[in-house]
Write a structure and sequence with these properties.
Length: 239
């Protein structure tokens, strides 16, 4: 165990602390490359669904399912739902009780069932059955917050968007990329730190890295490729 007090970044532009480290001098893209290499065999469930089904609808469903739900559950449940309701019209006509049964054991499966059906009906009525691309239109749908909307835009439509979930928010603050309390604040800073062409990769890389290496409690600093440079902000104990 390493109980040393973590270094604190100086009070300056949030990106400046990381810009001065060895692995950030050449390119912030390299930060993502290093993380990705460390977890090359891991893929977040929504990213996997996006690659398998290749439709915005599948990404939308799996993203809603994923809220407060483990990846392995998200993957299994999403496939069941998509098998039974393969398109937006089928989902709009679903029975809430039947859909809830398919959604088990995802968290809040009753609420997600109602939200998915209501959202599908709104998409049919207001967007001609097409999953919206604009953030405002996505946020207007039941059960959709900013994280879900950005993930749908990125993985479903291939648009440049940064989805900040608990892993992205935690890692960004722990590395000193930002000093924020809210995911929305983190998103704005990361958008300034990374080139637009790398925005989608931020979530794709940091989620599995946060699951396998940079864990919420007692992260695996001993196996982290960034251990020599990381300031470990907020880390009290590590492995």
């Amino acid at each position: 165990m390493n109980d040393r007090q973590p270094l604190r970044p100086p009070k300056q532009h949030p990106c400046l602390w990381m810009m001065t480290t060895i692995w950030m001098k050449s390119s912030r893209k390299e930060l993502l490359d290093v993380m990705e290499a460390a977890v090359c065999d891991a893929t977040a469930s929504v990213t996997f669904i996006a690659a398998r089904y290749r439709t915005p609808f599948a990404v939308f469903v799996s993203t809603v399912v994923s809220l407060r739900t483990r990846d392995e559950v998200t993957f299994a449940v999403s496939q069941r739902v998509l098998s039974e309701y393969p398109d937006i019209k089928a989902l709009a006509g679903a029975d809430a009780g039947d859909l809830a049964e398919l959604l088990k054991p995802a968290a809040f499966y009753h609420n997600k069932s109602v939200s998915l059906i209501d959202a599908a009906r709104q998409i049919l009525g207001r967007h001609a059955g097409e999953i919206p691309t604009q953030i405002e239109d996505l946020l207007a749908l039941p059960g959709v917050g900013r994280k879900t909307a950005q993930l749908v835009r990125a993985e479903g439509h291939g648009l440049p968007a940064i989805c900040v979930d608990i892993h992205v928010h935690r890692i960004s603050n722990r590395l000193g990329l930002c000093d924020t309390r809210k995911p929305e604040e983190t998103e704005k800073i990361l958008a300034a730190c990374f080139q637009e062409q790398d925005w989608i990769r931020v979530n794709r890389v940091m989620v599995p890295f946060g699951q396998k290496v940079c864990a919420p409690v007692s992260p695996w600093c001993s196996r982290c490729p960034l251990q020599a440079e990381c300031p470990r902000i907020g880390v009290a104990r590590n492995r």
